[in-house]
Amino acid sequence: MTMLKTLFGRSAADVAPRDTDADWEEIARTNPYYGVLTDPRFKSDNLNDEVLADFFRSGVQGIEHEVRWLRGRYPDFAPKSALDFGCGVGRLTRALASVTGDVFGVDISESMLVEARHNVPAGATFGRELPDRAFDWIVSLIVFQHIPPERGYPLLKALMARLAPGGFVTLQFALYRDPRHASVPGGRIVLGENFTTVSNVKALRKLAKGEMVMFDYDLTVISAILFDAGVADVELSHTDHGGFHGACIRGRRTA
User: Fold this and answer.
1) Quick check: 59 and 91 in contact, CB under 8 A?
2) Which one Pfam family would you cite for this protein (predicted)?
3) What's the pTM?
4) How many domains does the chain fold into?
């Protein structure tokens, strides 16, 4: 039994303050593409061939950016396999297939996976469980921020256990949010010039099912998991999603 199945198979209430699995299944049933990219164009009522082409083109552009960055730092970057964690409808998975020829997209929502399996490109496979194999490149963008850290840290450790020696990572985490988001449940708010932090996690239980929640992570814990897995050569870049601040982490495991 994989770590993913172990955690996802339990009630989220057992390990975290909110059942985000139920939230995402509800989002996937109603607005799967908007759930991935919160642009009104991608709401189910607005979808057409042109809009869907734009949606998947954004995934190609995102992966092309990551390839340029990693090749700039690691001239031998040439992954033959990739794992797309939190693949959703396959926005990045499809692009990763063209880069590596072998990509596995994993997501907790079966409804998301149903969409992802439409017109699957060559080399792409989808499922709810982490495969028991190694990958040259592990990618997870705008995903962990929607998973309670109590579940996210073990999942990150499980991902790193599947990173091949010399393999690469592209990961994104939310870390804190501006004070103007103090009423938004789910994470830590930085207050004042002294960077005091407060948490409003308790408010999560009051939300209706199907809400998209943002969770903030501790960079110290993330670093410990990466370093312990041999991913010591890393760089961080700031991400800011409307006052929800985080970091994109790119790096490589020792060979």
Assistant:
1) yes
2) Methyltransf_25
3) 0.87
4) 1
